[in-house]
Amino acid sequence: MNDVTEQVGQAGDALTHNPSRLSEREQRGNIWRLTIAQALAGANSVVAYATGAIVGAELAPVSWLATLPLSVFVVGMALCILPVGAIAGRYGRRAAFLLGAGAGVLAGLLGTYAILVGGVTGFWLFCGSTMFGGAYAAVVLQFRFAAADAVAPSRKARALSMVMAGGVAAGVVGPQLVTWTMDLWAGHVFAVTFLAQALVAALSAIILFGVRLPMPSASAASGGRPLSLIARQPRFIAAAACGAISYTLMNFLMTAAPLAMHMHGHSTESSNLGLQWHVIAMFGPSFFTGSLIARFGAERVMMVGLLLIGVSAAVGLAGVEVMHFWVTLVLLGLGWNFGFLGASALVLECHSDSEKTHVQSLNDFIVFGLMALGSFASGGLLSAYGWNTVLWVSFAPLLVTVVALGVLILRKKPEVNQAV
């Protein structure tokens, strides 16, 4: 498989008009800028998940709509992934990154205004804010693939993993941003939080101005092989399925957890701390996940991730004390890291350079389209049936995916990528 991956990388080199490999200095500069931007942009998602259900419960006209803003956040991601890929494919990744940062600024400003307005009008404005936040998050997803651009195939998984490690800082900055700012505006809890998030998004845009990546070539614009052909590859199917289930279940449980903690009498500070360690667990292993993928293969790392997600749900079923929620969130974050990064690395083996933006966007659209459905279901299940039901429901898709991936690993045969 490594030989095939090397061939795909060489094919991409031959198809691009720009130098396909940047200098070592430019590569390092890109990776560090993208890592810092990942850390800053992560505050967008952390603020949304830490406050979305709570603000939603305060503003929603009916209780079962409390988690709608978080579902809209995911819908925003799903709707914007393909347009972001098209923009990146035509104008370059940096143009898409800067548009995304602008959406992040709008998300923060509109969120502040929605809280100040309050009531039903404020609720729908807040949903608009989370839609922009989701658009920003869709762009941030491209950071991991941008890091793998123009580096040797053997370094792609490590470059991807390094940028994702920037989320560790987001795991610290995001929840603390909420805690420090939530009560600064008397009578308008979280108003300053969203204003601060807008400022952080603006800072991320400044960092991204310095990213240097090759512009799309004419062959990249053509897109290479038909997507239908690429999507039938067993590797792509495995990558998309495991990425989708890892992210969907992570979002499914994380969306409900802060509100579930609130419903069981735990403080906002406790839920913020739980989310902080959850996000750290999501991104902390990224410092070595790339090495694990290189050594054991993406499929095996994905399997470990799925199993960890199952263990996290089992811990949640054991009780509703603060520690149960915290351990559940930490294991959930670890499982997501292995599952999602393993799936992302596998996607890189499915395309040539000319096909990358189309294939990567298709993968993320599948992942976040399914995630959007799970997000809508999470709030309704929690409101109607409680936290335990949310946990039990998560086992069904997890079991199916584990079995399917296990069969793929056992029956795995070398594939000849038709791009070379």
From TrEMBL:
Q: Which UniProt keywords apply?
A: Membrane, Transmembrane, Transmembrane helix
| Endpoints of the signal sequence | none
Which PANTHER family would you find in this protein's record?
MAJOR FACILITATOR SUPERFAMILY PROTEIN, MFS PERMEASE
Give start and end of each Major facilitator superfamily (MFS) profile domain.
235-420
Which parts of this chain are annotated as the region Disordered?
1-24
The record lists the lineage as: Bacteria, Pseudomonadati, Pseudomonadota, Gammaproteobacteria, Cellvibrionales
Q: Which SUPFAM superfamilies match?
A: MFS general substrate transporter
Q: Which Pfam families match?
A: MFS_1
- Which InterPro entries does the entry link to? MFS, MFS_dom, MFS_trans_sf
PROSITE patterns given in the database record: MFS
Q: One GO molecular function term?
A: transmembrane transporter activity
**Top-level lineage group:** Bacteria
Question: What is the name listed in the Swiss-Prot or TrEMBL entry for this protein?
Answer: MFS transporter
Give me the segments passing through the membrane: 31-50, 62-84, 96-116, 122-147, 159-178, 190-215, 236-255, 275-294, 301-320, 326-350, 362-385, 391-410
